[in-house]
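Reference record
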Amino acid sequence: MAIHVMTTVWLHSHGDIAVKTALSKAPVIEGMIEIILNADPELDIFTKLFKSSSLFLKAATLLYLVKPKAKHLISTEWVPLVLRVLEFGDQMQTLFDVLCIPQEAAYYLLDQLLTGFDEDKNWENARQVVALGRLSLLAKRMEIRDVSEKCNVGAMICCCIRADGSCRHYLALNLNKESVISLVLEKNIDYNNHAFALLTELLCLQRTSVTKFLNELMNGWSSLNTMQILLIYLQKAQPEQRPMIATTIFQLDLLEDPLKCSIYREEAIEAITTALESHTNEKVQEQLARTLLILGGRFSHTGGPTTENWLLKEAGFDESLRESRCTIIEGVKVVQSVLLPV
C-alpha cells in the first residue's frame, strides 16, 4: 500500500524536483526495501537483480541499506553472486541520495553467509567459496592497505580453512605473509586475534610444507624482523595466546641455527613451559595442546592431526591389523579391541 501511494505521488508529480528529492532520501528508500523484505523474505527479486550484469552493483548498494540477516540468504545462488560484487565493486555507486562502495555490501553479505547460519550451513557456503576457486580473490584482497578490510578477509579465509582443510596448502603458498604480519602490528586486539587465528590454521601442515611457509614468513614486514615482531607481541599477549606465539617464534628460530640458542628461543621455551604449568586454565591448556601438535608437524592433507597414528606405528602397532572380538561376560557383551604388533 505504501509503495503504491509513493508510486502514485511520483507519477502525478510529473518530475517535480521537490517530490523527487523527498522520495530519494535514504530513509525512504530503506523503508521501501524493508517492505519488500517482508513480502519477499528469500529476496528472490534481489537474486534476479544481482544476476544482471548492469544492475548487480546498484542492487548490492540498495540491499546493504537494510543489512538482511542470514535467514534471508538461504539460496545457494548467493555465494557466487556476492563474490562477483566483491570482485568488481570497488567503485563508489550513487543511487539517488545513497552513496556506497558495493564491496562494503559484499563483505557484510559474505560474513552473513559464512557465519550467520548453523555450523553445517556456514561450512557448506565456505566450501562453495573454495569450490568456485575464489580463494585467489580473498588472498588478493588481503594485500590491500585498508586494515579493517584485511581483517575481515582474514576471518573469512579462516572460515574456508575450517570448512575445507585441504585449502591450507594453496593459501600457505599464495597468501601474502606480510599482510598477516602487518595485522599483528596493529594496536587493535581484534586485528591481532584474527591474525593469529589465521596463522594458527596455516601452521597445521606437514613439516616439509610448514618449513617453506615459515621461511617466507621469516621475511617479516617492511624492514622489521618477524621474530622481533612476535617477541614484542608475546610479552603483552593474553595467557591463552602465548603458546601459539611462542611456538611460531620457536619454529622460526630453528630455521636459522638449530644448535645455537638465542634470546628468541629462550623466551619461546619459557612461555611454553609456563603454559605447561597452567593446569587450572582450560583455555591455555586447549591452545597448548594444539601448539604441541603443530610442533610435532604430523598432519593429514586436510590439516587433521596424525600424531597418534604415527606414534602407534613407530611403537610397532598398526591400526589396519586391529581385531575385534566379542565376549559374553555375565550376560553383558563386551567388545575388546586388540592391537597386534606389526
In short: Residues 147-163 form the longest helix (17 residues). DSSP finds 19 helices and four strands in the chain. The first strand starts at residue 93 and ends at 95.
